[in-house]
Amino acid sequence: MSSLALRGIVREFGHLRVIHGVDLDVAEGEFVVFVGPSGCGKSTLLRIIAGLDQPNGGDVLIDGIRVNDRRAAERGLAMVFQSYALYPHMTVRQNLAFGLENQRLAKAEIDRRIAEAARMLQIEHLLARKPGQLSGGQRQRVAIGRTVTREPGIFLFDEPLSNLDAELRVQMRVELSALHKRLKATMIYVTHDQTEAMTMADRIVVLRGGRVEQAGSPLHLYNHPANRFVAGFIGSPRMNFLEAVAQGGSTIRVDDMPPVPLPAAAETSDGEAVTLGVRPEHLGFVAEDGLPGTVDIVEHMGGESYVYVTLANGARLTLRNPGQTALHSGEPVRIGISGAAHLFSRAEGEPAIAARRPA
Amino acid sequence: MITTLARLIDAPFDALQRRFGAARMPYVFVAPNLLVFGIFVAAPMILNVWYAITGGTQFMPADRPYVGASNFAELLDCTNHFIPATCKQDRFWRAVANTSWFVAFQVIGLVAISLLTALILNRRMPWRGFFRAVFFYPVLLSPVVVALIWKWILQPDGVLNAIVVGSGGARVPFLLDPGWAFSWTIVVSIWAHMGFYTLILLAGLQAIPADLYEAAEMDGTPHVRVFWRITLPLLMPNMLVVLVLALIRAVQSFDEIFVLTGGGPGTATQYIVQYIYETAFANQTHILGLAATASMLVGGVLLVLTLLQLAASARARGEAGR
Ligand SMILES: Nc1ncnc2c1ncn2[C@@H]1O[C@H](COP(=O)(O)OP(=O)(O)OP(=O)(O)O)[C@@H](O)[C@H]1O
Ligand SMILES: [Mg+2]
User: Which residue has a Cα nearest atom 26 of ligand 1?
Assistant: First the structure.
């Protein structure tokens, strides 16, 4: 189990800079998830950590020691690739043994580690098969097993579940979390799926355009997004955003609809243009005041309902209602803020709009 | 533009389909190709069998007397098959011996050099496209051009001897000494064909997913082990194709060597196809029966090789587990 630190990591491909000075500390035993939209540099960052790619600037430290000049194999890491990268012509057992043979471990030790990993991942009955004879989920387990046998200081995962179907993904998510608890290992996990990030991470690192937008625990990011990007990225269904104008500190006006009271006072100046962000579960139906609109569609999940509403000014909102609702399409409703509201500055030119006051 | 073209083609095919019905259209489509195949491949093959079991020097099939297997008996008549001089048709057996040695060295050299070249060209390096073109270029040359280029290099007052003499050595009879001439036919033949096999192997190398190599790198696998345990096994299907194609084509070697050495000195570089050609068409008496018989024997060997390849590649596919 190792710790990891990144100091001012920069990576350029030709003239294109894709990683803009990333700093990060990962503690021993932590499960850190890199999340962000496609092309934001997650894989690049992971490959730099792994030693498969070299940064143009900055340092990678493992257990406090600079490892930039160490080859991948000498960093004490193991990686699960998105495509699994199993050797197709070898049996599962040979796949698991291959890396260990490079380390010139004794045969008995190799067998012990394979047996242990196979038991842990329930792939004992597959050891004689070749990857081509396995299902996607089984291949995934073998790929994870291969890293487990290495007994690495840090596990790296690059979108390991993206090739699995939805049901299997949920199952493997749980198993990976269990594996983390059991091995108490440091794990760095890349995904663009915020649900995976929320459910597995001790800490989420949100990346965009090669920069860290925010890092923190899942609930911290959910409750206190640093900017509109993080607010929109974390949480499902997505946070609702409305262009609005602050009226004093405690009410807000959207176009010429009636002003809506905020749940808590915000530090805004009167008449300031802001973006109002409210999560679907923090909106509710009110009898008077509130934003007028009509129900588009109601999705019944059974335990909860999603209500999609179009406001008088054409903006669309999603509401998450606990339990079941009798609302139906076309019904006029009024909507108020029942939980936390987030105000984001709309100042121009700011790449990431700072949160003014999560209320 | 394309739609106009399509409409132009449509009309005759519509007419054909109305005439024959949709179910018979597949046969209509393959008919032209089948016709060409029939005239230039199937018919000559059948004729060849007829020539092999008939004798005399007549050219018209109908004029040739039936002789049964006597052409085969004549060709195979040897006291010791490994010593051509003890055979009734010693030139045939000399050609067989020459061809066997040639095939062994040429194929091993060709596969090894093609593999090495493909491995090098598969690396990231400057001018990669240029080098790939350079190695493929000889494949595009006519065999006669290949032979003439090398003749210009190897003849007694050729380029190579100019260099040898220039650096103080004595003139070497590259094409006049049996050993030298035999070696040069192998070199020239490898040079002329390696681009094609390099291309097949290069395609195979590029089909190996890059992340397998990255996984191996994470595992700290030494380069030599990566080659033997990952690259080579995954390249096996392509290697088999290359091996068998190279074998078949080496047995068929003729044109560039015929122009380069004419089979000489003596019969040192006379290979089996040249024997067939000369027996049938070049010598004063055209012994078509023997030539046809020899080509059937060669065909039999090639058939066995091809079956071996099919079996081997089927096995390789099974082993890759895909
Ligand atoms: N070898 C390369 N050469 C040039 N540009 C590259 C290279 N590798 C990555 N990039 C660029 O770097 C950026 C980040 O790529 P990266 O693969 O890290 O994205 P990602 O966050 O992993 O995306 P995804 O979720 O799609 O996997 C992209 O804009 C990509 O085009
Ligand atoms: Mg990626």
Answer: A38
